[in-house]
Amino acid sequence: MSRPPGNLGPHRRGKTDRVSSRWVGAGDRDGGSVTIHLVDIDHVGIAVEDLESSVEHYRTMLGVEPVHRERVEDQGVDEVLFAVGSSFIQLLGAVGPDSPVGRSLATRGPGLHHVAYRVRDVAGALDDLSAHGARLVDRAPRPGSRNTLIAFVHPRSMGGVLVELVQTR
Question: pTM to 2 decimals?
């Protein structure tokens, strides 16, 4: 099994052996590489308990202003985006406790939720990742905010990080 660069596992001595068991990635099936054509980091998603107070906190602490707000009903989330270079910081507030972000907040608390990469073709990226043994949350692209197509890759296939793939339309 290929091993990711650096230690992506827990930051405790004696626990690095868990890294390889949690990493399913490029080259696991046929020795080749996944070629999903990452374009950029689209955003870093951060789950927050109180969206409006978090927006004010980011304004005060980082000097950033919101550039986009949207409710994504089918995901049960309200989002606020702050532009940082060609990427965004995305604050995520759960619409309800049964939404994915609501469940994440209940089990993990606030903090980093996912990292999103911009790709040219989400469907093609999913096919390629699946062919290389990646565990997918979404088997097909679905509508995302900002008129995008998105799909998620399970953390077990990405060294413990929930990854979102984003295609602009």
Answer: 0.81
- Distances in Å between the Cα of 14 and the Cα atoms of 4, 17, 18, 28, 59 are 17, 7, 9, 24, 40
Decide: 51 and 58 in contact? Cβ < 8 Å. Answer: no
CA distances from residue 165 to 18, 20, 28 in whole angstroms, order as listed: 25, 23, 20
Percent of the chain with pLDDT over 70: 81
| pLDDT tens per residue, range 69-124 | 999 999 999 999 999 999 999 999 999 999 999 999 999 999 999 999 999 999 99
Both tokens assigned to 152:
């998620």
Q: Which domains does the chain have, with CATH numbers?
A: 17-168 (3.10.180.10)
How many residues in total does the chain contain? 169
Q: Which helix H or strand E contains 56, and what residues bound it?
A: helix 51-62
The pLDDT of residue 163 is above 80: yes
Task: Return the structure tokens found at 139.
Answer: 């088997």
Mean pLDDT of 9-28: 38
Task: Give DSSP secondary structure letters for 1-46.
Answer: ----SS--S-SSTT-THHHHHH---TTTTTS------EEEEEEEEE
